[in-house]
Amino acid sequence: MTRDPAAADTNPAIVELLGVDAAYRERTVLRGIEIALAPGERVAVIGPNGAGKSSLLRVLAGTLRPTAGRVRLVGDPIERLDRMAIARRLAVVPEVAALPFAARVEEVVGLGRLPHEDPFRGHRPADKAAIAAAIDRVGVGALLGRDARELSLGERQLVLLALAVAQSAPVLVLDEPTVHLDLRHQVETMELLVDLNERDGTTILAVLHDLGLAGHFFPRLILLDAGEVVADGHPDDVLADDRIRDVFGVDPAFVRRSSGSAVMTGVAGDGRAR
Amino acid sequence: MATRSEVLGAPLVRSGWLEWARSRPGVLFAGSIVALVVVLILGVGLGSVAVAPAETVAILAQRVFGLDLGGSWSTAAETIVVDLRLPRVLSAMIVGLGLAVAGTTFQGILRNPLADPYVLGTASGAALGAAIGVLVPIRIVLLEFGLVQLLAFVGAVLAVAVVYRFSRTGTLAPLTSLLLTGYAVGSLLAAGLAMTMYLSGTNLRQIFFYLLGGFEGSSWLQLGLTTPIILAGTAAILLRTRVLNGFLLGEETAAHLGVDVRRERAILLSLASLITAAAVSIAGLIGFVGLVVPHVVRLVVGPNARVVLPLSALIGASLLAGADLVARLVGGIPVGIVTAVIGAPFFLVLLRQTRSGYEL
After folding, report:
1. Using CB atoms, which residue from A62, A85, A103 is nearest to B248?
2. Is some CB atom of chain B closer than 8 A to the CB atom of A64?
3. ipTM of this predicted complex?
């Protein structure tokens, strides 16, 4: 599937960044970002460490305020939406964090219903159904009843993915959803994202380090470098040899792509400092 | 509790009453309300002069609810029940309730299992305020709410305000900054307290008694002034249980789940501090209730604040009123000793039973 520019024109963008700059104190992390996602698109953001990928997600989630430019989420300027409204439109898969108290897997997944649940009465049948569906879909049913703190990092990552799925937002944003996962779960997670995207029409934006997975499972890649979009389009174009050499500073031979299976790459292993 | 061998796909049924209780929060609520009523009747009936349970109930029914259950009692019994013991038992209950609610809130917001209601300097602020109140030669009695209580309240509120204000400067993460600032301000106030005590001469004993905490001086008026603060604060926190749940996975995730983190953190910390200030102003510094009760409740019912908060409130109330009763029956020892003697071993057992321990 290739991106059809005409479709993007008739379909108003569900996520839109126009000339966005962002900075932490004096340090500029994003410069002149122009990105528009049509509803139902599936996009991977790639780029070397420090390229601004996570900052981009934070701008989208409204937790990092841009210093310039405009951000629109499902038609509305993000600054006009309160946190609950943002949370109903955009779900972010949480980072694996230490839990201060014992919490069962189903209780952690249930937190995803927070923007929908009744503030006083808690989970209603619709919430419970969404939680059960998310647990089933991500395949963490076998973990039910366990203290989330006892799970392996990979298992926790899947539980947190289920939390974001339970949030049932039209836009799903993921930051490195596969870092702690073994090969099989990496592929299964990618397949789940494809399924959420194609069957439910969820718009997906995922930051990925693994160029093999990104190129194989995502029809559109956005390459960030030093806070700027340097390429945006079909994987074959974005992952051109000279670009990989320039941006990542590695021999393109490390980034082999194959059609039949996801191929691990030289850059995938180094990960981010966590 | 589950064992390690209980692996993937194992049935959800777990051994013992913990699992049974967990799936029935209604039973737990009913049980803790019954416990509260029992503690109320025992607390009012028992003491140096025992009043028979039937008599206690009849007096309470008539004076509190206006019901005539028949029977007769001496005016002495009525005075003991209504003027001495009832305000004392109710004070212990309202303070226990407040400390448990504040403790649950501080632990949830600060995401720190070792947080208690005193973590942001309320204790040292109240102590210094009370000590100054003891030393000031003028005796202003405002509706029987003495200068000591008033200054303790003001001291606690001021201490938190200073901690909160200072924690917002600098580059540390907000939570780390709050805890460290709380520690620093607390240390400074403790030095002030030590100096005040050093200078206090014959008043030292009075300051010391305040620090130990207790309900000897309880009165209807003190109760009437602090109860609205504690109950209103508790009600306001109960309306925000959804927010409190959002903080479970950290502030970033809370924001992604729809919580206005900065605003809600400020509101919840203010409410919990206000409750704590009101509690310490009439009871002095009573430890362990605010720390242990929320943990025990969470161990049984899980982390959902919608259940943990009201249940902690009820159990905190029973526990402190019960501890005060024990303290009276043992011969008037400070109630803080009883809560520590019950609380510390209980907490140790609990820590051993929780397999994965507490992560900091």
Report:
1. A103
2. no
3. 0.84
